[in-house]
Amino acid sequence: MPECWFYSKYGECCNGDECMYxxxxxxxxxxxxxxYARGFCKHGPNCRNKHVRKLVCQNYLTGFCPDGLNCPNGHxxxxxxxxxxxxxxxEQQKSQQTQQQQQQQQPQQQQQQQQQSQQxxxPQQQQQQQHYxxxxxTFRRLEDVTCFKCGQQxxxxxxxxQGRIRQQPI
Length: 170
Description:
This protein is mainly α and 170 residues long.
C-alpha cells in the first residue's frame, strides 16, 4: 500500500482512519546517526539523523559483556573512519622509483624536442609545433594569427574590418 502524501507532507490527513493510504510516522523514517552511536556527533541537535540515547553497558566498558549483541544497553564503538594513513615502505619505494624515472626521462625529452625542431623545414609545421608546446593559458602573438575572412595576418576574424574573400569560380 502506498504512503499517504498528505500525512507525509503535513503530518495529518483529513480522511483520518478511513484513508486508504499508509500513515507512516516521519520519526520512524529517520535513520539513526552512526556518529552519535559511536559516542559523538559534531552536528549536535542540528543533525538530520536521529540521536538515540542509550545507557552505556558497564560490563562492556570494563572489558566484556556476556550478553553480546543481545544487550539492551549501548556498546560504544571507537572505530572512526581513517582520514589519513601514513605511507607504507612499499608505497615509498614506488614513489622514489617513479621520481627517478621522471628525472631520467627529462633529458631524453629535451633531446627529442631539439631533434624535432631541427627536422622542421616548413614554417607552418613550426607554428603548429609552437602551438602544441605552449603552456596552457597563453595566447598566440598577433603576428602569428591569420584571419580566415580576409587572409591577412595580424588579427582574428572576429576583429576583421574587411568582408569575406571572394573566391573566383574555377
